[in-house]
Amino acid sequence: MVDVQTKIIIECPCDQVSAYAADPDNAPEWYVNIHSAEWQTRKPLAVGSRIAFKARFLGQQLAYVYQIVEYKPGRLLVMKTADVPFPMETTYTWESAGSCATRMTLRNRGNPAGFSIWFAPVMSFMMRRANEKDLKRLKKLLESQASK
Fold it and tell me: Is the CB of residue 119 less than 8 Å from the CB of residue 57?
């Protein structure tokens, strides 16, 4: 099993961080590996929403669809892939970390199958590194917007 969890403190209010991070349209801006996000269901984001993503990870082009399985605006977002060889669940949580700061947690969990089982430790390491970069990019983006 791959289970990677990363956290960061962002010096912006929780409602601002969660609204931005939960919007799939913003994913290509703060996720280093995501190139596009296309809604397959109507907006706004809700349980049952489906979003198709195109990304690049470990030198491979990836296309996958996430379905929102739990959403509590400002607190929690859980999405799962469907119909892929490596099912993945991504969870965002947000909590106040002071009067004008947010602790965001990004967690990716999945069960590789077949040949990919052997690469699970490498995948975990690479995912953690990518997630840390993504959260740092999100922090920089939101904090620079807040300072304007």
Answer: no
The pLDDT assigned to 60 comes to 79
Using alpha carbons only, give the angle 26, 15, 131 rounded to the nearest 5 degrees: 45
- What pairs with residue 135 in β-bridges? none
Please list, residue by residue across 5-15, b when 16 or more beta carbons sit within 10 angstroms of its beta carbon and e when fewer do: ebebebebbbe
Rounded to a whole number, what is the distance in angstroms from the first to the last CA of the chain?
42
Per run of 10 residues, the mean pLDDT along the chain (length 148 residues) is 94 97 98 96 98 86 93 98 81 95 96 62 85 98 88
Return d(Cα 112, Cα 86) in angstroms, integer.
Answer: 5
Q: Which of 147, 4, 124, 19 is nearest to 71 (CA)?
A: 19
Pair 90, 110: CB distance under 8 Å = no
